[in-house]
Amino acid sequence: MLKIENLKFSYERRPLSIDIESLLIEEGECVGIVGPNGAGKSTFLQLILGIHNTYEGEITLNQVKLEKKTKNYFREHIGLVFQNPDEQLFMPTVYEDVAFGLKMKGLPDVEVQNAVNEMLDLLGIGKLSQRASLKLSGGEKKRVAMASIFVMKPDIMVFDEPTLALDPKSRRRVINIVNELQNTKIITSHDLDMIYETCSKVIVLYEGKVVAQGETKKILSDADLMEKVDLECPLILKNLL
Length: 241
Hints:
There is one protein chain. The protein has ten helices and ten strands. It is α/β, with parallel strands linked by helices. It has a single domain (2-240), classed as Rossmann fold. It is globular. The mean pLDDT is 93.
């Protein structure tokens, strides 16, 4: 369970500020964080990962309060799949990228090998094991980045724009993978059709504040709300309305 209370944060040299009175993400939920550019979505993710220190209020995960001494706990239990997989992949091969975190934990080689191979097969990229990660297609890189986080088995999976710049087939594969995961999931995206297909709950950020939250269909089909926050209802809902 991730709980936020009276969270306030401001950059020194940027106009964006975060002001969230109360937010609760419960175990097993898939929650979409939506809003226009500059709404504070990426900053919100950075805050729950302990990247920023100068904030007011409380962020707690499983009743553990985020503090300097508990940052590692948060980073062990929250796995972030970057918006740009090139920022996440840095080892010579796919296998080594996915194995890196497990090796840093000091797991035996056999255990690492079994876990990595199982994860690569699960995501349909086992045949890419010895390929150079950075020479893969965008969709393949995205799946390798996911595998490198999934294999660590975090409590919460965080996806920052997971379908950005993907072709339709790769986008569909990512949506299917996300839907199959049983973890608690947080997804930030401008792809509201993807949010509709994957998330049970949506939180709308606008100018750093939560302006709405609730059941996905109810929030995303509210045309007045969407216009107010410079978004549009998903195409799939427009066709149903």
